[in-house]
Amino acid sequence: MVQLQRAHLDASFAALSDATRRGILERLGQADASITDLAGQFRMTLTGMKKHVGVLEQAGLVTTEKVGRVRTCKLGLRRLEEEAAWIERYRQLWDARFDALDQIVEELKLKKRVDGEKKEC
Amino acid sequence: MNNPTTVERTSELELVVTRTFNGPAHIVFEAWTRPELLQRWWAPKSFGISFVSCEADVRTGGTYRFVFSHPAAEQPVAFFGRYIEVTPQSRIVWTNEEAADGPISTVTFEERDGKTLLVLRELYPSKQALDDAIASGSTGTSGAGEQFEQLDELLVTLVKP
């Protein structure tokens, strides 16, 4: 999980290292936009813009959705990815708790065994 | 080797946590219901959480109040609620009232061949409530992680004119 977050951060910072891509994020912060809109505004070919948006999407900074022939871009992490990360963190919390609970179960088992032996004597 | 812990979102409203313990149900139940024992496992050190106080009157109609500190929190954080049902050695149901729309938690202990299967269900009142809990990273931990929060802050500064 830590690995996953690290990879995620690396991808994010790589995505942010480019001035055009920072510009795209700034633009999407104002309103959602299609690839065609963005290509026009940044005076770029559709292919070039698709590449930039792809990098931002990989980093989870932008999500895109195709409706008909238009692909709309918006800011934000992929929701499913966010949910999976949260669930993994939640699992780690319970796993850490239960590892500690295991120890207490062992202690109590031992104690009952000792008490049982004492009674038999 | 520890037994694995699993977590699954089984529906729009529910999360389910499972784990098997190498001991009989009455022992796992005891460790869950005696505050002096509960305190020793509920706040894992690896998460930086520690108990400030732990009150739990574990019987049907009883209440609990756990207060934790965390280095990232300025003030201690309290978690509290009521035990709706406590059936010795098999089942505990409680509310989580520190937040509006908190879940109802049900833990069951099923003994088989001297081992106990523990199943914890957290049932939220609405899909929105569970989605919000996930989005806010609540449940007593920093959720999806401080790194995402840092990234969010970075995005805000980039996006603001």
Binned strand content of chain A: 5-15%
Give the full name of the CATH homologous superfamily of the largest domain in chain A.
Winged helix-like DNA-binding domain superfamily/Winged helix DNA-binding domain
CATH domain topology of chain B: Alpha-D-Glucose-1,6-Bisphosphate, Chain A, domain 4
Number of helices of chain A: 5
Architecture per CATH nomenclature, i.e. the level-2 architecture of chain B:
2-Layer Sandwich
Instruction: Enter the CATH topology name of the largest domain in chain A.
Output: Arc Repressor Mutant, subunit A
Instruction: Please state how the strands of the largest beta sheet of chain A are arranged side by side.
Output: 1-3-2
The counted number of beta strands of chain A is: 3
* Tally of strands of chain B: 8
- Any low-confidence stretches of chain A, pLDDT <50, length ≥5? none
Strand content of chain B: 35-45%
Task: Sketch the major β-sheet of chain A.
Answer: 3 strands, antiparallel
| Average pLDDT for all residues of chain A | 85
Bin the helical content of chain B: 10-25%
Mean pLDDT of chain B: 84
* Overall number of structural domains of chain B: 1
Largest interface: A-B, 39 and 46 residues
Count of discrete structural domains of chain A: 2
Estimated structural class of chain B: alpha+beta
Please characterize this protein's 3D structure:
The complex is a heterodimer of chains A (121) and B (161). By secondary structure, chain A is mainly α. Chain A is 74% helix and 12% strand. In chain A, strands 1-3-2 form a three-stranded antiparallel beta sheet. Chain A starts with a helix and ends with a helix. Chain B is an alpha+beta fold and 161 residues long. Chain B has one domain: Alpha-D-Glucose-1,6-Bisphosphate, Chain A, domain 4, CATH 3.30.530.20. Helix content of chain B is 25%, strand content 37%. In chain B, a hairpin with a 2-residue loop joins strand 7 and strand 8. The longest helix of chain B is centred in the last third of the chain and has 14 residues. The termini of chain B are far apart. Classes of the chains: A mainly alpha (121), B alpha+beta (161).
